[in-house]
Design brief:
This protein is an all-alpha fold. The chain is about 50% helix and about 0% strand. Strand 1 and strand 2 form a beta hairpin. The chain starts with a helix and ends with a helix.
Length: about 160
């Protein structure tokens, strides 16, 4: 990753932390810059690592908001810890096909936390290559062409879980 890109990611993270801290400033930032070793996403296949950006705090917060951590959670067509829809599975498989990968996700994969996180990373790498945290959260809730107004409540919930 270029020095400029690393600096941009660090600046974005610090800005995000500053925007979400209470007025008193006594909160501990959970998405703070950490050691270089922890900035790698080890659970994802090499083809899905997103420029060394650590999505773990965001994914963990989304899991808490979506299902309270229950990998068997169901709500309508959404299932699993990250409440993945059939449309997202299809989107991920289209992305994989475009990338000439033989890998494909199944509906059953939505119940696997590991595979759900892989789908999240794949979705972000395609629809959010700049690794914008706000865009990531809003797009997870409202799709790639989300409405800011329609995703505000969700965005605030996820950010609150990251504190």
């Amino acid at each position: 990753m270029s020095v400029l890109r690393k600096a941009s990611v660090i600046l974005m993270t610090l800005t995000l932390i500053g925007m979400t801290a209470p007025a008193g400033g006594n909160s501990k930032p959970t998405a703070a810059v950490t050691s270089k070793a922890s900035l790698k996403i080890e659970s994802a296949p090499k083809s899905m690592k997103t420029s060394g950006f650590n999505w773990d705090p965001i994914m963990d917060a989304i899991i808490q908001v979506e299902s309270g951590g229950d990998p068997n959670a169901k709500s309508g067509y959404s299932v699993g810890a990250m409440q993945i829809t059939p449309i997202l599975v299809k989107d991920c498989n289209i992305i994989l096909e475009k990338r000439k990968s033989k890998k494909r996700y199944t509906m059953a994969d939505r119940y696997s936390v590991e595979k759900s996180k892989e789908m999240f990373l794949l979705f972000q790498s395609f629809h959010n290559p700049e690794n914008n945290v706000e865009k990531a959260i809003r797009a997870w809730n409202g799709g790639p062409k989300y409405s800011v107004r329609a995703t505000n409540k969700y965005y605030k919930k996820v950010m609150a879980k990251m504190k």
